[in-house]
Amino acid sequence: MSVFSTAPEVEVRERRLHSVITYNGTAKDLYEKAKADNYAPCDRSFSQCSSCMGGQGGGVVAHIRDVAMVCHAPIGCDAGMIGATLAARGTAAARKQEPFDLHVMSVNLQEKDTIFGASDKLKKAIREAYKRFNPKAIMVSTSCASGIIGEDIESVTEEMEEELGIIVSAIYCEGFKSKIWSSGFDSVFHAILRKLVKPPKKKQEDLVNVFNFEGTDTFSPLLGRMNLRVNYLMALTDLAQLETISEAVCSTTICETLSLYVAAVLEEQYGVPEIKTASPYGIDWTDTWLRAIGKVTHREELAEKVIAEEKAKYESELQELRTKLQGKRLYVVSGDSFAHNLANIGKSLGLELAGATSLHHDLKTDNPESVNTLNALIETNGDIPNFSVCNMQPYQVIKILERLKPDLLVCRHMGLTGLGSKLGIPTLFEGDANYSIGYEGVVKFGRRIYEALQTKKLVENISRHFEHPYTDWWLNQEDPFYFEGGNTK
Ligand code: SF4
């Protein structure tokens, strides 16, 4: 069955990829169960917090330069855009590009709109966005409120396209549709693939699509050595760049979780091969990733040259770091594939993996041949005995950390990062996902980890003064998860 369809919406991950937000066991057990289609996702009886797929989708679109975004939502749904503004400015500065401001508006749905409908309000907002920002395309994001009242967004976008003469595309990302907020990535990529991407006019044999967030430019120095150009998507891209992503020689990513859908569609619809190895985090995964890119771009010899030279360049510092970090136990908390990436860098630095928590887990990939990063981690590093899937839930993470007492926590979720310090665990926040790629990235990660470990006395002091809200009854429970239902079908 085709991955892509021209239908306005793409299925959420629970249905498409059987993604789950609960698991506790070992990495190998989860992988085996997923492979045998023998994992019955269970729910948790209590959810402390979560995130919305609308926020993820919006975060991607809002960073496209000449595209405006209209949120058909109550104003609060898109409050997170304030953070996106800062991220966009920071990325532009880090990449030494022109400053960039977000072009986002909210329809500000009110209670009466949910009774009488708000199509006219939406049209007014689209016209206003066109007038204010002069965009080349407008993306309309949906919300729980617009979904519940059943607004006919397709008709509005078609009418406005005709009136304004530019593309107006809807992103169907109502928060209630999915507990996997990464479903929002698929919604936004679907909206882009459906209306913005054009069939290739010519192949650009040196252009590599790199799906990423608002990170620093670390891919160009590495791939530039193989005479390849990096097409960073989506942050700070523009419409012209988007239209031609079908012309790239291949697609790669900082995280399978972010781009599995768009990469699979680009391969299926336009013959842009997806790099089917784990992303370049850790020495061994950088080797295999560069070789895969060398193969698909017919630059095998160049790839070997880059691998040999880069490894030689960082070998002595890497050895030094391994000695300094010897015996330290690392715990990782991050989104699905990115947790595997961070764990693999830890292994390259000789750290012992105390365990890992991924914020959700996709049991399948859209392209069955795509890399399974959990399996890649098991193959290169062995099983991970303490492996869990948990969509944030600080009340569970605190118990895991207290039980395992790692020497160091690496966290990609800002809200959970403070938990480490409060428990007296030196913690590293991995905010810029591009920063630690490649051989140099492993060394930079090691330096930062070493620095973080020097905060041990400080965080122990913090933990002595920290009072968490959990009762002794809760903290003394054997099972920190309280899942409803079992793990096996
Ligand atoms: S879950 Fe619904 S109400 Fe909450 S932010 Fe998302 S779209 Fe808005």
Describe the structure.
With 489 residues, this protein is α/β, with parallel strands linked by helices. The chain folds into three domains: 51-195, 3-Layer(aba) Sandwich (Rossmann fold); 204-296, 3-Layer(aba) Sandwich (Rossmann fold); 311-484, Nitrogenase molybdenum iron protein domain (Rossmann fold, 3-Layer(aba) Sandwich), CATH 3.40.50.1980. The protein has helices at 13-16, 27-35, 53-61, 81-94, 111-116, 119-133, 144-148, 153-164, 183-195, 219-224, 239-243, 256-270, 283-296, 300-325, 336-348, 373-381, 394-404, 414-422, 438-453, 456-464, 472-475, and strands at 22-25, 43-44, 67-71, 104-106, 137-141, 167-171, 204-212, 229-234, 248-253, 329-334, 352-358, 387-390, 408-411, 427-429, 483-484. The strands form four sheets. It has a six-stranded mixed beta sheet with strand order 1-12-11-10-13-14, with helices on both faces. A four-stranded parallel beta sheet has the order 4-3-5-6, with helices on both faces. Strands 8-7-9 form a three-stranded parallel beta sheet. Strand 3 (67-71), helix 4 (81-94) and strand 4 form a beta-alpha-beta unit. Helix 13 (283-296) packs antiparallel against helix 14. The protein is globular and about 65 Å long. It starts with 12 loop residues before the first helix and ends in a 5-residue tail after the last strand. The mean pLDDT is 93. Iron/sulfur cluster is lined by residues 52, 54, 73, 77, 143-144, 174-176.
Number of E-state strands? 15
- Average of per-residue pLDDT values: 93
Q: What is the number of domains?
A: 3
Report low-confidence residues grouped into runs of 5 or more. Answer: none
Provide the helix percentage.
Answer: 40-55%
Major sheet: arrangement of strands:
1-12-11-10-13-14
CATH topology term of the largest domain: Rossmann fold
Rg on CA atoms, Å:
23 Å
Q: How would you name the CATH homologous superfamily of the largest domain?
A: Nitrogenase molybdenum iron protein domain
Bound molecules: iron/sulfur cluster
DSSP strand content: 5-15%
> Would you identify the CATH architecture of the largest domain?
3-Layer(aba) Sandwich
Give the CA-CA distance, first to last residue: 25 Å
Strand count, sense and closure of the main sheet?
6 strands, mixed
Number of helices: 21
Structural class: alpha/beta
The CATH class label of the largest domain is Alpha Beta
